[in-house]
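Quick one: co-fold with iron/sulfur cluster.
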Amino acid sequence: MSYAIPGFRHPNLPKNELGYTAKDYEGRVSTLCAGCGHDSISAAIREACFGMSIPPHRVAKLSGIGCSSKTPTYFLGNSHGFNSVHGRMPAVATGGNMANRNLLYIGVSGDGDTASIGMGQFVHAVRRNVNMVYICENNGVYGLTKGQDSATTDVGSVSKKGEPNALEPIDLCAIALQLGATFVANSFSGDKSQLVPIIQAAIAHKGFAFINVISPCVTFNNVPGSTKAYDYIRQHMASTNTVDFVPAEEEITTDYAPGTSEVVTMHDGSAIHLQKMDEKLDIHSRRSALALMQEYKAEDKVLTGLLFVDPDSQEIHETMNTTATPLRNLTEKELCPGSEQLQKINDQLR
Amino acid sequence: MKRDTVTNKFVIKFANVNGTGSASANSLFSKAIFRMGIPISPKNIFPSNIQGLPTWYEVRINEDSFLGRRGGIDIMVAMNPQSMERDVAELQRGGYFIYDSSKPIDEKLFRDDIDFIGIPFMEHCREVYKDERQRQLFRNVMYVGSLAALLDIELEVLKGLIHEQFKGKEKLIEPNVQALVMGYEAAKKEYECPIAFRLSRRDEVGDKILMNGNAACGLGAVYGGATVVGWYPITPSTSVIDSFAKYCRQLRVDPETGEKNFAVVQAEDELAAIGMVIGASWNGARAFTATSGPGLSLMNEFLGLAYFAEIPTVLIDVQRSGPSTGMPTRTQQSDVLYSAYASHGDTKYICLYPSTPKECFELTATAFDLAERLQTPVLVLSDLDLGMNEHMSDPLEWDDERKYDRGKVLTAEDLDAMEGPFGRYLDTDGDGIPYRTLPGTHPTKGAYFTRGTSKDEYATYTEDGKKYVANMEQLQKKWETARHEVPKPDIRTTGKPCNVGVIYYGTSEASTLEALHHLDRLHSISLDSLGIKAFPFSNEIKEFIEQHEYVFVVEQNRDAQMRSLLINEFDFSPQKLISLLHYEGSPITARFIRHVIRDNILQTATASHMRSYKR
Ligand SMILES: Cc1ncc(C[n+]2csc(CCOP(=O)(O)OP(=O)(O)O)c2C)c(N)n1
Ligand code: SF4
Ligand SMILES: [Mg+2]
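Sure, here it is.
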């Protein structure tokens, strides 16, 4: 279906291929704390969608509960959004996706929402390879309930509360890799140049695309002893690669030194151009990603960038062989077997 | 023992060990009687276990079509040494105890008010079959053969059924028929056949079908246009999904491409199952889940979201005995209050109470129309007895003119034609039902944010108390609209002045109506009755209670849940409602209902009616 783009536009704003301006990707004004990492991620999502010329109304935004889960209000105001219940966004997204396979599903969650209450649902959405982008806005703390440690808080990390965390953290990227996620990336809300193309690549990916984004909470977890503070991440972040997303129609123009770059062609013809910072990473090998993450962690470094991608992955509709028409568009004609058939069924029951 | 012959009116019970293949022999027995035109009602009584524990199969045969549980056993087919003692004890005087006499039974078991019929089934099987598993399987078929002789079941009908059953596996027909005939002859040889209880061909079945409620719910969802299922296995609801998937595989798969017009997702738990249903329904598909008590408990938070955010949701709850894991394979009607008011905050849900497979089919299909029309959860409350046992039912019907009621959903054209902005929760029509849009409809109009937080009419977050109250009142108005949309109760009046009424719902129907029939015939007590089919209660229910001095409420739970619900929803004296409760996990019997009502009425005129009867 195609629709006329609304009439009035600021004449000077740059337009994307569909004729939309950046304004068309905005949402409401954020009510998060000034400086919250989550707001930068919303901005990156807006930029990624604008850059890829995604029709905003073809996106469904879903989230759980938390400061992070509030953010879908702050981007893509012409998309339907669903702020569900705490930790249960994956199920709602899965059901939504079952009903209409033709929309783009962007799920936003927090570390409490994903790694604690929603761990079960997260894990199973990965397993099912639901075709969606899943962004965990990871601040190592429960923001909305005022600063409790979360399951991703590092051992020894100290939040504003002042007590060092004693428990082992859950590494969501590692778990996603082990469970067979077909696209896994780690990024930082403060590094837009990395985050935007990663989100674009995740959108282009067919299957479950997981992005863990370290996203400092300025109010409860941006103190010197915290490993999720801006300063700490800036000092300890190491990239596996720089990522350039190249839409299907465009030619790859940048020249890279041979041996240090790699092009991954996505199923829709677009491409991810990777400029390798660490040659040891084989983007198609889970094992390589896991090993490298361990290695960096041992050196107190946080490895970011695209960690793994399987561009030929089979998403859940393909596995289930559901019809190409969105199920929600089917009518009585396709769905109801009719009275004659019912008579046959009655006969079998006599 | 001297006795009268009883034709086509008795109760026979099979005592088996689960996992020994008795189920298919038992259903062969039932089906044959059904094919002889005689109404039957079989019930499985089984443990929550896969192999080795006692199971029973109780069949009521009644040519007058009284097919609830009667109470009392006339014939026991005792194939399980483990349970023999209680099986003997359960027989009514004048009954028959049929057992495998390959091994002698304990003399202590003998009673002189019943007849013992011993046939050495295992001995015969050992002679004929080599394999141990085969011996066990054919012993089952063999006792069906003996029953054919003892009760006068037409052998040809049984043979016909065996041919149907093994269509495509013809090799199995011959040995099964052989076992059948072997049993038949063994009984003939040693006993005078038929015994006092016997069968004789009738034409009382007509075009009726034999179906279980879960199969009917699954099929109702197919006809009702469900495309997405999220579910998690739990007895006794699992076979609802099995049935839906089975019929979909037959009827909803493109023969060329194999592409499916449905999606069944086995979720990781019930929270996810209902979440998927809500996500799919929000996105415009007809979706449902099926569960039982423990699953319903887990689904609560999400149900509240669907109520408050106004998302169509269909949930089939096949009730079993609670609390907690309770008696997972026994029936009960004990989720009534919980379903009506599930989840925290002020909430209430449309509930439908089917009594027969036909109603399971119809009410499930209707649930989708109601859910989409009213944009709210609809719970279909079946139970284990209805769901997992075969019931004789009127044939299923579908009107090909019937269109799905997709409710108030705006298209892109509607949005373009609209003056003023779209407000997701604006009660434009004054019926409490707002308009919704589906994701992906229009590039610039109609998008909104679905949330579980309080919101204004434009779906914008608000904590303004007045706006919150306006929203809650709009939901209340919708509830009043629903009161007129849900199925009406079944009211039967005696036509005579009558100051006592009886209210029942769900699977208490058959036993209640039978009890009322006999009260009338045997004790000249004629009472009006009302079968509740839905919550919210329509005005007819209120009027019925008002028109009677007092009303019995028949239910299968301890706490008189429907009575509480009636008292809570209407403004009348609790004294008017007398509870009649049975909740031991077996279906309520006609006898129990009859006795309680009779005793009460005979003693009545006496003081307080505020008694309650429990068993
Ligand atoms: C069932 C349930 N339990 C608890 C809560 C309270 N709660 C709201 S947000 C939240 C934690 C959010 O943490 P996170 O997902 O990390 O999001 P952040 O605010 O840090 O972005 C909790 C516990 C809730 N909303 N629902
Ligand atoms: S509390 Fe933390 S996470 Fe929440 S908005 Fe403020 S900075 Fe962001
Ligand atoms: Mg957090």
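If it helps, Chain A touches chain B through 66 residues (CB under 8 Å).
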